[in-house]
Design brief:
By secondary structure, this protein is an alpha/beta fold. The chain contains nine helices and 14 strands. It is 31% helix and 20% strand.
Length: 306
């Protein structure tokens, strides 16, 4: 059954069929319904053609320096299907292979460090097995981090706002700051965010009865100096954060509240705070290429809570 989030309709969970004719299990979520006219989609065939076509829509791309490079596979290989995800985990790699797809477009690194350096991992058995699986399944991985954040609007922010039903409040002049027409209690916001972002648990600094009207969006990881500068500049009622070092923004918010400041903090977790943006990427990419199926595989929150 289709449902509406914000101003957009999202297709319900269904089987994704790749061009090889193989089905995939329940991990795969169908992309959002297409909004662009189909004639604007460009036929592509190889990994590099997919990448090149995506970059056509990113301002000032390609960048001279970026982590968004091909970290596995070959640009010359024909693409049978595309999977978007947050973290290209072992489970995501296996699900991609089971679907008959062979290109993973991942927001974060497969190799446990932002720059994808692997010299220090050569003797690590988990790294070795991950590389072996990628070669066995002939799967390419391309990072879509810097470019996706530089899309207009930022793809992660827009995907999250759509999932939360807040995309109507997006302001391109202040893309990280949203303001509601009227105040909402922090506890009500927390419950809505947990449900919308599919979070098992969030961490909160603040008074759950506190009225909130302005929210600063700090999804994923944002340097604490940027977050603290935003507190000073905007004085938001709430910072909605992916993750932050606990001796930095966390303590600044706590000390500020002790001195009478109003800014609260909600920490979602990194994967939870950006997954909706990569689900939206499946729609966005699918609208811009033709002939290749695109779907989203959530890597999932890595934590259990007791």
């Amino acid at each position: 059954m289709n449902k509406r989030i914000g101003s957009r309709e999202i297709l319900g969970r269904r089987e994704f069929i790749s061009s090889t004719g193989k089905g995939v299990g329940a991990l795969l979520i169908a992309p959002l319904s297409a909004a662009m006219p189909l004639q604007l989609a460009t036929p592509v065939g190889t990994v590099q053609e997919v990448i090149d076509n995506i970059l056509r829509y990113i301002p000032d791309a390609p960048f001279a320096k970026t982590v968004d490079v091909l970290v596995a596979g070959s640009g010359d290989q024909p693409v049978t299907g595309i999977v978007t995800t947050m973290f290209p985990t072992i489970e995501v790699i296996r699900a991609t292979a089971s679907a008959g797809a062979n290109l993973i477009i991942a927001h974060e690194t497969p190799f446990y460090n932002h720059q994808d350096a692997t010299d220090w991992l050569q003797d690590d058995p988990v790294y070795q097995e991950k590389v072996r699986l990628l070669k066995e399944y002939k799967i390419a991985i391309w990072r879509f981090h810097d470019y996706w954040h530089r899309a207009r609007p930022d793809g992660i922010i827009l995907g999250n706002l759509i999932r939360l039903g807040w995309d109507r409040y997006y302001n391109p002049d202040r893309p990280r700051l949203i303001k509601f027409p009227k105040s909402i209690p922090l506890g009500t916001l927390v419950a809505h965010v947990k449900k919308g972002m599919r979070a098992q648990q969030v961490r909160v600094i603040g008074d759950l009865e506190q009225p909130c009207q302005s929210i600063y969006l700090a999804f994923g990881f944002m340097d604490s100096k940027m977050q603290i500068a935003a507190i000073r500049q905007y004085q938001p009622d709430l910072i909605l954060s992916g993750e932050t070092r606990e001796w930095e923004t966390v303590e600044r918010v706590r000390d500020g509240r002790a001195l009478g400041a109003n800014t609260s903090l909600v920490v979602l977790g990194h994967e939870v705070s950006e997954d909706a943006g990569m689900a939206y990427a499946a729609q966005w990419i699918g609208e811009r290429i033709a002939g290749i199926p695109v779907a989203h595989v959530p890597s999932g929150d890595p934590f259990m809570f007791h």
